[in-house]
Automatic annotation (TrEMBL):
<keyword id="KW-0597">Phosphoprotein</keyword>
<dbReference type="InterPro" id="IPR023674">
    <property type="entry name" value="Ribosomal_uL1-like"/>
</dbReference>
<dbReference type="InterPro" id="IPR028364">
    <property type="entry name" value="Ribosomal_uL1/biogenesis"/>
</dbReference>
<keyword id="KW-0832">Ubl conjugation</keyword>
<protein>
    <recommendedName>
        <fullName>Ribosomal L1 domain-containing protein 1</fullName>
    </recommendedName>
</protein>
<comment type="function">
    <text>Regulates cellular senescence through inhibition of PTEN translation. Acts as a pro-apoptotic regulator in response to DNA damage.</text>
</comment>
<feature type="compositionally biased region" description="Basic and acidic residues">
    <location>
        <begin position="301"/>
        <end position="312"/>
    </location>
</feature>
<keyword id="KW-0539">Nucleus</keyword>
<dbReference type="GO" id="GO:0003723">
    <property type="term" value="F:RNA binding"/>
</dbReference>
<dbReference type="InterPro" id="IPR050257">
    <property type="entry name" value="eL8/uL1-like"/>
</dbReference>
<comment type="similarity">
    <text>Belongs to the universal ribosomal protein uL1 family. Highly divergent.</text>
</comment>
<dbReference type="Pfam" id="PF00687">
    <property type="entry name" value="Ribosomal_L1"/>
</dbReference>
<feature type="compositionally biased region" description="Basic residues">
    <location>
        <begin position="367"/>
        <end position="380"/>
    </location>
</feature>
<dbReference type="GO" id="GO:0005730">
    <property type="term" value="C:nucleolus"/>
</dbReference>
<feature type="region of interest" description="Disordered">
    <location>
        <begin position="263"/>
        <end position="380"/>
    </location>
</feature>
<keyword id="KW-0007">Acetylation</keyword>
<dbReference type="InterPro" id="IPR016095">
    <property type="entry name" value="Ribosomal_uL1_3-a/b-sand"/>
</dbReference>
């Protein structure tokens, strides 16, 4: 659970000194053009947490003094009313806001108009640059993320949901517009919230800082110590520290880490002992199997059985009958018509290729000598 607000106590004297120093620095850096146009810079609180949160979170922070000027442009996204065109829906909600006393909303855009007229990328970028803040009807808030684009979230101008059916609509919209939000991501331990502007008095800025810190501490979903350091800064200045937490809990963290390590070591040793006991018990309980020699069957027994029984004759496939004669008992006709075939040599003998001489013996008569020696050995 989060710590109580009383545990994080800001030094208001130190906060006021930091605010006065920051305002004096911004006055020295201001130009005649900025003074003529009454341009003011945003003042923000930079929170550094002790650890990275496990879940992303967005916290709304109500402030006692408004941080937006009358010149800020606010746009409202509404749902499409049944049986009405987008222009009729736009006129309907403008009339409703005027009747309820809402004066801070400068433009109303129905959901159907957003899908059709602001579908191109350039139109979305123009819409993002024309307005300082965006509100949304809570009935269509979940549908806007796929139509407005990622640049609204990168510039931290995502629409804030508002209940347009509320009886205190003017108060709710005024509180939402003059308040602020802080987005806590699970990718880092730093987050920033806008709490004032340079045109406000020092006491008003200090009160906004105090209420913002107390709200964040109560709503932040982080266990253990929460905030490590809080800085105050503007868009073009360095960060001034206004709060630093105590380091007493670091000894407790070290002790808990040591205890956790000792518990892990004890678990590892216990598991090793169990595994060794199981292995030794398995070795004792296992019996060595006896090897029985395999005796092949004797061949003499098979031969004796065959001689006693005798060899059986194979069955005759014709069943004891003679095979039919394909010629029907007649002789086959002579293809030469009873005459002798002509002699290709004309009755003469073929010439002897060796010229009447015997061919030379390739073995040189050695085979015969070997045969005679073998016979004499056998006779002996």
């Amino acid at each position: 659970m989060a710590d109580k607000p009383e545990e994080l106590a800001l030094d208001r004297v130190q906060v006021k000194k930091a605010v006065q120093a920051l305002l004096a620095f911004l006055k020295t850096k201001s130009t005649p053009d900025s003074l003529l146009l009454d341009e003011s810079q945003h003042l923000s609180l930079l929170f550094t947490l002790w650890k990275i949160p496990k879940q992303a979170q967005t916290i709304r922070i109500p402030l006692p003094h408004g941080i937006r000027t009358d010149t800020d442009e606010v746009c409202l996204f509404t749902r499409d009313e049944p049986n009405m065109t987008p222009d009729q829906t736009q006129r309907f909600y403008k009339k409703l806001l005027a009747e309820r006393g809402v004066k801070n909303v400068t433009e109303v855009i129905p959901y159907k108009m957003l899908k059709t007229e602001y579908k191109p990328f350039e139109a979305k970028r123009r819409l993002l640059g024309n307005f300082d803040m965006f509100l949304s009807d809570d009935r269509v808030r979940r549908l806007l993320s796929s139509h407005i684009g990622k640049h609204f979230y990168e510039r931290k101008k995502e629409p804030l949901s508002v209940n347009l059916r509320s009886k205190k609509l003017a108060v709710d919209i005024q509180r939402t517009i003059q308040g602020t939000t802080i987005s806590i991501s699970k990718k880092g331990c730093c987050c920033m919230a806008r709490v004032a502007h340079s045109g406000m008095a020092a006491d008003e800025i200090a009160e906004n800082i105090d209420s913002a810190v107390s709200t964040i501490v109560t709503k932040l979903r982080v266990k253990g110590p929460l905030i490590k350091i809080i800085h105050l800064k503007s868009q073009s200045s360095v960060a001034l520290p206004i709060y630093t937490s105590n380091m007493n809990h670091l000894t407790l963290l070290e002790e808990t880490k040591k205890q956790a390590r000792a518990a892990m070591d004890a678990k590892k040793t216990a598991s090793k002992q169990k595994s060794t006991e199981k292995n030794t018990g398995a070795e004792v309980e296992e019996e060595i199997p006896q090897l029985v020699p395999i005796v092949p069957p004797s061949k003499k027994a098979k031969l004796e059985k065959q001689t006693k029984k005798g060899l059986e004759k194979a069955p005759n496939p014709t069943g004891g009958k003679k095979a039919p004669n394909p010629t029907g008992g007649k002789k086959a006709p002579n293809p030469t018509g009873g005459k002798k075939a002509p002699n290709p040599t004309g009755g003469k003998k073929a010439p002897n290729p060796t010229g009447g001489k015997k061919a030379p013996n390739p073995t040189g008569g050695k085979k015969a000598m070997r045969r005679k020696s073998k016979r004499t050995k056998k006779a002996a």
